[in-house]
Amino acid sequence: MNIKGTLDSYRKKEFKPSEFIDGILNAISKKNPSLNAFLEVRPEESRGKALELDRRLNEIDHLPLFGIPIAVKDNFLVRGWRATAGSRILANYESPYSATSVERLEAAGAIVVGKTNCDEFAMGSSNENSAFGPAKNPWDLQRVPGGSSGGSAAALAAGLCLGSLGTDTGGSIRQPASLCGLVGLKPSYGRVSRYGIVAFASSLDQVGPFGHTVWDAARILEIMAGYDSKDATSSRTVVPKYTEALANASVKNIAIGIDQKWLEGLDEEVRRAFDKALQGLREKGAKIVDISLPHACYSLSVYYLIAPCEASSNLARYDGVHYGHRTKHPKDSEEVFFKSRGEGFGTEVKLRIMLGTYALSAGYYDAFYLKANQVRKLIQKDFEDAFQLCHCIAVPTSPTTAFKLGERTEDPLTMYLSDIYTLPVNLAGLPGVSLPCGLDSKNLPIGLQLIGKNFEESSLLQVAQAYESHRGVFPEPLAVRGGT
Amino acid sequence: MNDKYEAIIGLEVHAQLLTRSKMFCTCANHFGADPNTHVCPVCTGQPGSLPVINQSAVELGIRAALALHGNISEESVFARKNYFYPDLPKGYQISQYERPFCNDGHLIVRLKSGGEKRIGITRVHFEEDAGKLVHQGNETLVNLNRAGVPLIEIVSQPDMRNSHEAGQYLRTLRTLLRYAEVCDGNMEEGNFRCDANISVRREGQKEFGTKVELKNINSFRFVEKAIDYEIGRQIELVEKGEKIIQETRGWNSAKNVTEVMREKEEAHDYRYFPEPDLPPLVISIQWQREVEKAMPEMPEAKRERFKNIYGLSDYDAAVLTSSRELADYFEMVAGQSKNPKGSANWVMNELLGKLNASGQEIEESPVSAEYLAELISKIDSNEISGKMAKTVFEEMFETKKSPGLIIKEKGLTQISDSSVLEAAIQKVIAANPEQLKDYRAGKVKLLGFFVGQVMKETQGQGNPALINDLVKKALE
Prior knowledge:
The structure holds two protein chains of two kinds. Chain A is an alpha/beta fold. In chain A, 39% of the residues lie in helices and 12% in strands. Chain A has a single domain, classed as Amidase signature (AS) domain (Amidase signature (AS) enzymes). Chain A contains 17 helices and eleven strands. In chain A, strand 10 and strand 11 form a beta hairpin. Chain A is globular. Chain A starts with a helix and ends with a helix. Chain B is of the alpha+beta class. Chain B has three domains: 283 residues, no CATH class; 114 residues, no CATH class; 58 residues, Arc Repressor Mutant, subunit A (Orthogonal Bundle). In chain B, 40% of the residues lie in helices and 20% in strands. Chain B contains 15 helices and 16 strands. Chain B has a nine-stranded mixed β-sheet with strand order 2-6-7-10-1-11-12-13-14. Chain B has a three-stranded antiparallel β-sheet with strand order 5-4-15, with no helix packed on it. In chain B, strands 3-16 form a two-stranded antiparallel sheet. Chains A and B meet through helix 10 and helix 11 of A and loops of B.
């Protein structure tokens, strides 16, 4: 099942939105207890919207996401729904307004069927930093779905929606997409409004879709993307019809850049799948060219300065004064701050707040924040130079496939290494898409990442589409085939 | 001030901008509403909300920069000032730090010595206001109506040497901002707030003394007093050989002293960094020009115009342009009475005198400009005498009535009808044959006597000049 096919079925009146949404809601209630992908569902509300659409079938051509069930990461605000961002400090926070991206999807006929689990404040690569327990990977319930948008990936991979939303600050859409066998797209910075997503690192955060296919992801993006007067960093660049561009996607004479040095030390099975994918692209007429990203190796260090610095400030508003968790019986206002935050935030979040607070402190600012931003510019320059030689860059999304729950929680650095192929893309503000390119010997999905030029999602998605057509239909996890 | 010492004073002024909406959201910039009614996700710091720069706030900032002869940066950067306080919903204030939108301005103040002094302005930057805490018994409540209200902070050079200069700087700054329609400039209402950095040093000493930050000067009445007190306090300490502690002190207007607010300068580390939610603020030359074109006339220009068009003296022009309201009032009177000189005299001598005596501002004048113009016209058309006009003016000030009505009620119209006056003159001459004889015998001083008698006969309403002429003729 995918978005494109479902829209066709609606058109052919094979079933009505209410029937389809009912099926989805039943599947959620059946499968979510073992997956823990959803933190909140509102069956009555979703069903109500579906029933309304039953009567509006004649408008289907004006509603590009007519009756499509979507799952939304819990760091998005959807009016009336909770938005916990995976944190205890916002456990009971009810959204007073809707994110621009969600508003646009709903206006196009999409139906929100649930809010999905994620690492606390989107900080993590395994979903294990959620205050509400980790979501599980539908391919193997003993394994992580990736993170931070793990719940959105797990929900889609398990067939509990047809598309889902995530945020990607350092790989939080692409890495779970890779680990769950999905298409996950991080658009260019500024392509989709950030208004209404709980900020983690403002200069890196970007909203993006998960889909079963490139077409599905393209459809969600083309609805969400575009200038928003409520987000001063959103771009006025015209949004093309991404799905239309896919119709005759070809990689003939397209140059795809590879940085060999970047691939060193890669897991063998991932490497093999990656090479096979490249071979496939070559067969379709693409040229593989060597490029060099000499500063990409500093991405982890740069990222773990810039992101925590911005986060330390972005998360200051959770102080127990205006909303969210407040400590009981505080002695004075200082205790409201310290205890509410101490009780409300989890370990990883505290770690990053301290890291960022330290790095921004007087005397350290120049050495850390300023220097990190200088290196960030070098990384951006690397990509600019590389794009003189190629149309897009290919690299695996994640150095490994899904790892076991608890396997990396003891060592944050190993966990951080999950994102070495995704971080530089955020630092450079570029669009990147992960799409499944094979299974390893444990039957776990492997992801191919394609990185495009700034605001050239269209051509990036064309390459992805060409690969997807060559690859053929990707299998579904056991959970969907009835195994859960 | 002790002659052996010199004070060094720099002022930081926060001026609230007269925009319709807040700095980063569309909530009304309006006071006096019920608590927390002018709020939205942005100014209450809800998760996911983002700031968007208010273009009209920027325009008012440009006006201020132009009024202060500052250099406007084509690109300036917003920054976050991070600290925890219950009235600060985001846990940071959006301000400008390393790259403010305006640098290197100045203004000229007039001193009581008659001279002028140029006071440098280091920078002007945008920022947002915080909310307000209301203490009620054991509880503290937060009102966020003011959170996100646009401010400019104007930082002076440490160019002032005594409280008079500081006071004049503040007044001049207020006048300029009011002229430019940037800020209301009301200290009591808190839309024009001033912090003073004060230090003292011995005459001739090169390095600055330890500086104390003085807050809570919330009325123009306290400015000089508070600064004088603080200077005196510091000199006394130095004289006694004691150390001045770098601290923040507040003015206690009940006790007329400055008091410690913050022990030592707690090393506040605001962890400033560029606001990632806002791109750099670009103010193009073209935008500056547009704002400049639409800018209201500033005091210097107005003063020159008053001198040229109305033929006023430098002094009169300076007094009448000291506030925009006064200048507007004068122009209205001058325009309607068509007698600029007379208008200047009446406004400066009569009206301002009475207003000062009753502690009122020109905006509160019981005598409207229209009525004052009417009064002046009546003098000029000989309807009433200048002397009568003063009586009428007193009455206007008391009752707010129109001069026409007062003249009618009191029957004060001047008699310029010569036939009426001649009849009165004949009556007086007939009644005083002795004096007539003496006059004709050469005692010309008696003219005054006859004029006086005729004035009496006409109950003081006779036109004095006309009576004079007619009496003279009649006595010949």
